[in-house]
Every structure is written in C-alpha cells, then in structure tokens.
Specification:
Elements lengths: L2 E2 L1 H7 L2 H7 L6 E3 L2 E4 L14 E4 L4 E4 L5 E3 H9 L3 H11 L6 E2 L3
Length: 104
C-alpha cells in the first residue's frame, strides 16, 4: 500500500474541518483558543472545559485524558484508527482525494 503525504494533509486540512466532523461545540472561546468537552473521551459535565484546542496552530490537548496532537492525530484518537488509516478515513469524510506517495 502506498504511503500518505501527511505533511500535505496537515497543511490543507484545518482543525475547524475536523472539529466540525466531530460535532465539537466549544463552551468558550478566547481568540483562536477554544475550550469544551473532549471528543476523545467525552468528558463529563463536571469538566466541560477539559479540552483545549488552538485552531490557528492546529494543536489540541485534553487536561483530563492527556491526549494531544494535531488535527490528524485528533481524528485518529477519536476514530481509534492508526494514523495511516485515519488519514485515509478523514480524506473520505471530507470528500477529498488521498494524497498518496507512490515513490518512497
């Protein structure tokens, strides 16, 4: 199976696109920093702001489950797929072509 151009996907797919697919509703916003319930472990009502995401830098962190990373890693964590399979799945979810690397 050919490789996936992860760098291209990280450049072209925004954090907002991934959050929209996950139906993430921020509880509060402070500029590019958004807070809400963690889509990875579905934080409870006691910790509704455990999840922090910066939509400009495309990075997230959950203060409760300690998951962190970029938009592709977030999709992989939520879908419980390998990064390679999650990248393919995310492309399909966004109706876009997978950027394959055919010559390694």
């Amino acid at each position: 199976m050919p490789g996936v151009d992860f760098n291209r996907l990280r450049r072209e797919i925004t954090m907002q696109q991934v959050l929209n697919l996950l139906h993430f509703e921020p509880k509060t916003r402070s500029g590019a920093q958004w807070y809400g319930r963690c889509p990875v472990h579905h934080s409870d009502a006691r910790r509704p702001r455990s999840f922090s995401v910066n939509v400009d830098t495309r990075r997230y962190y959950c203060h409760q489950c300690r998951q962190y990373g970029n938009q592709l890693e977030l999709w992989a964590a939520v879908t419980q797929l390998s990064l390679h399979q999650a990248a393919i799945d995310l492309c399909h979810a966004l109706s876009r072509e997978v950027p394959w690397i055919r010559n390694w």
